[in-house]
Design goal:
The protein is α/β, with parallel strands linked by helices and 422 residues long. The structure holds adenosine-5'-diphosphate and magnesium ion. Adenosine-5'-diphosphate (ADP) binds next to α7, β12 and α15.
Length: 422
């Protein structure tokens, strides 16, 4: 084994690089690249993950660590063991023989910086090590400023008229006005959207322009094209001409959501169900799918279909089922039968409230704003906090997957303390 720096965990004691590689062939490709980068070739050790764990348990971790998983029977578990002995900030590159996207994703999720497939080539190694160096020397902000929370929910009506847009506009109003969260409402009912109408606003050309020219979408575009409903609420809605079909591949919808992620804390997408069929990737960035239904036979069937579509096509999205317009004694299907047929509970039930709906329409306000103390409004607030709860869970996972709170950082903090104590 080569000379490793003394324990202590001070950054100054750390080697810039070390590798633990199982076979000579790979070592022969690696050593010249390491020399090229100005590191010591002796730091390329023969041995795999297990040797790395052994030596790092008694010495300081290098800045960049390359480990070979080829002889590891359970790579994820072994990586876990490695994280136990690595100091925070170590950038780990794994190499292996298994070409499996799932393993790759799991490794990245556990905080591995990169995974390289054998046989190794000098150019792949060089690129990966350069990228690792860039990551290591990049300034690490404190967690609070690196992870800006953003939650995105799509409101999907299982049928027209169930109240999806009523819920979408009310949620947007609630987050922006009551919770003071910078909020975007994206109304993807491009021809017949009611997002602006509900608030007595003109939709303008923003959304149609975005669809026509997705490449123009940037922060400035968002600022100009969105209409303001209150200090914290910006809306993008349209009344696209109905004499010609919509010409889009859906790129604009993704691009808009990407920009919203930077500019707002909350994105609400009013998403007509047929958009799922034409543009399935529209949910790529969405955390929570709020599925709105009513107690009818047709809605039960379509709730089943939408939920199973979500499971098959958007596994990352957490569904939340909201029943609207619920009236005792006037349902085609009882709540119990409905829940049995969709094979899950309804999360929140909103009663039928004709007076509230009429008041909102007359005042040109959202339902929740027009009758804030009604039962429907308190149900909508419940939906709002469920979305935040589910979205937060989801964005924690996303942050971990992005390596921001990787195993290596969390476990490493404990290692650093242990080594300092020893
Ligand atoms: N809980 C409710 N009670 C009574 N009417 C409601 C309720 N929720 C929505 N509505 C009304 O139902 C109609 C359809 O609602 P909308 O939100 O446009 O449905 P969707 O977007 O699902 O097609 C609107 O006139 C709205 O005011
Ligand atoms: Mg609608």
């Amino acid at each position: 084994m080569s000379t490793l720096s003394k324990p202590g965990g001070m950054p100054g004691n750390r080697d810039p690089f070390a590798a633990y590689i199982c076979d000579e062939t790979a070592l022969d490709v690696l050593r010249p690249v390491v020399i090229e980068l100005g590191w010591q070739p002796e730091k390329c050790n023969k041995g795999g993950l297990r040797n790395a764990v052994q030596s790092l348990s008694v010495s300081a971790s290098p800045n960049i660590l390359m480990v070979d998983l080829s002889e590891s029977g359970d790579p994820l578990n072994d990586i876990n063991a490695l994280a136990e002995v690595c100091e925070p900030g170590t950038v780990v590159i794994a190499i292996g023989q298994v070409n499996d996207v799932r393993l790759y994703r799991d490794l990245l999720a556990s905080g591995i910086h990169d995974y390289l497939l054998k046989p190794l080539s000098a150019s792949v190694l060089r690129d990966s090590l350069n990228a690792a160096q860039a990551v290591f020397s990049a300034p690490r902000g404190s967690e609070s400023d690196t992870v800006k929370r953003h939650i995105s929910t799509a409101i999907i009506g299982t049928r027209g008229g169930v109240g999806a847009s009523t819920l979408a506009t009310s949620l947007a109003w609630h987050y922006s006005a009551d919770k003071a969260m910078p909020t975007a409402l994206l109304d993807l009912d491009v021809h017949f959207g009611t997002g602006a109408l509900t608030l007595d606003l003109e939709p303008g050309r923003g959304l149609t322009d975005a669809i026509d020219n997705p490449s123009r979408i940037d922060g400035l575009f968002i600022e100009r094209a969105m209409i303001r409903a209150n200090d914290n609420l910006a809306i993008l809605s349209a009344e696209a001409p109905i004499n010609s079909p919509l010409m889009t591949d859906g790129a604009a919808f993704l691009q808009l959501q990407e920009e919203f992620r930077h500019a707002f804390e909350m994105t609400i997408v009013d998403l007509p169900r047929n958009m799922l069929i034409n543009f399935p990737h529209v949910l790529n960035d969405v955390n929570v799918a709020t599925v709105v239904c009513e107690m009818t036979l047709a809605s039960a069937r379509d709730t089943i279909r939408v939920l199973s579509w979500l499971k098959a096509n958007a596994g990352h999205v957490t569904p939340l089922v909201v029943a609207n317009k619920v009236q005792a004694g006037a349902a085609e299907i009882s709540k119990a039968d409905f829940e049995a047929s969709i094979e899950r509970k309804i999360d929140v039930t909103l009663p039928f409230d004709q007076k509230g709906a009429t008041a909102a329409a007359k005042l040109g306000k959202t339902f929740i704003d027009a009758s804030s103390s009604s039962k429907v409004s308190s149900g909508i607030k419940q939906v709002a906090s469920r979305i935040i709860g589910l979205g937060d869970e989801d964005s924690d996972e996303a942050a971990e997957a992005a390596g921001k709170k990787s195993l290596f950082d969390l476990k490493g903090l404990m290692v650093k303390k242990d080594k300092a104590d020893a």
